[in-house]
Design brief:
mainly beta, eight-stranded antiparallel sheet, about 10% helix, elongated
Amino acid sequence: MKRVLALLLAMVLLLSLAACGGEAEGSASSEVEESDAGLYMLTSMKDGEEEIDLETLQMIGADSWYLELREDGTGTLYLGEDNITELKWRNGVLKADGDRLEYTREGDTITLAVEESSLTFTLTNGEAPAASAAPEAVDEPEPEEPESVDEPTEPETAYEGTLVETSLFSFVYGDEWTFDPEDDLSDYEDYVYASPQIPDPENDWDLVYVNIEVNLNEPNDFAYSMYNEDMEAYKAVVEGAYEVRNIGGIDFWVSPDDSYSVEYFGYDAEANAFIDIYVSEAEELERVDSLLNSIQWNFAPYSGDVTPWYWEGEAYSVAEHTTTAGGFTVTSKLLPNDVAFPTYDIFGSRVAVNGDTYYVLDDGVIEVYTRSGDELTFVENMELPFEPDEFFVDADGAVIISSAFEDPVRIDSGTETTIATDVDTVTVHPSGAWGVGWFLDAEVKKVELDTGAVTTVTLSGLDSVSHVMLTDNYVVVSGTSVDEEVGACLKIYDLEFNEIAELNDTNTTTDYYGSVSAAVETDNGLMIFDGNMRDVYFLDTNCDLLAAVDMNEMFGTDYPWPSGAIALDDGSVIVCMTDERPDESCDETLLFQVTGF
């Protein structure tokens, strides 16, 4: 529409139009008010202080220009035979070719305005008249009567097949597609998905599968979906960093071309709609294009409370909290950082500390901070050869990373050295001298980090392992007991792997020990964090349970996921966890300092 209007106004030497009101914000709804529907003839133009009346418009043949708004949400803007634009509309907005132009209505007139220039159309009950002939005094050629002026026609659909209409969008699928509304459609006021498929005639699965999903007011879920495709919502929305494809009048960011599938991410600001279109087979895009091009978005302006994007939201904040645990008064306080990153791996955050340097494993990246007082200042992200599940930092600043499917590596002053092979995820002892490699079964491997020597150890009393944690004097293991009546349990061994204690729901008052994610040792015993039950277990130096404290009472959190802890030289403990911000803009990785135990 920008090109059309600019050409129109240049032709009559009256107006100069630089833009039509910004970027696309979705197609028009079919639910429009009848009061704006009708045929409006151009009756005046204005450029700054200069106004061109109807008589002058008749002299130049512009009195035949019109705006028709039909009750089905479609319309036509006729600005001469060579400038006919089919459009969609809702009260106050015209949309065409991915562009958007707002209008105002007063009584029987509609005005299209850009800066100090405007076109005014007046409602008429008749049909659009033929163009008036220009007088001989006008050098311009006499305009021909446009074929479509006498009786504007509805645009013909370019897509043949079965129409599917939902509360937020519609599409057409052809004969080779299958679609069962009972199984392939979920249609709610604020959430809709539809999943048409092309079946493979030679197999039981689909040749190609498409999922069209729209959520209203869910920026965090949208950003998470983009993250899973190695994309950043900020780079897309703010920086325009990705390839774009227009679908139904909305520009979609296209996932990087490095996988078998293709994903399109679209955002309509006016409707606060977040759109995710997934195509399972990139090689079948030609067969999918007709379906994608048939999509029409039926959005209405969003009127509810708006959840902000993560970069516009408010960083997590909570006051200092004090609680009682087994006769100890325990205090926790949040350590704020100057760059509040969102997190999507809510179980995977870890923490390490070396002096005033804090290292946080967040979404597979190790972020480095410096601490001054109670605040953390972001320094950099470390370059890593792979995304670790666990990591450790020694007194010299060397970093050891490991994961279930990579050999552990030591990174020292930029030099990477493989420590051992075939040892799975390695949890490192606080001394930095050795670690335990573990995966799922009760057979683990003790690794000497200096030499890479490996010794296999079978943990007594366990059938499987979900997490291994090392403190100064203990090996703490979350797993499943060989006793089926016991099930999930927490085993504590000494450093020679001799069993010291077992905690389970049959020998303590605590319900469950199946998701222990962090353990740390102080002079008074052990603090153990359960990520599923959201309890902190306090054990004395004999490994007897002193207390189980609700995590929300201890930290002032809402629904946290504890994932890492480390003891400092001053006897305090740094606890790493994730929790959702109160404004729901994202989940955030948090560091708390705990004192008193």
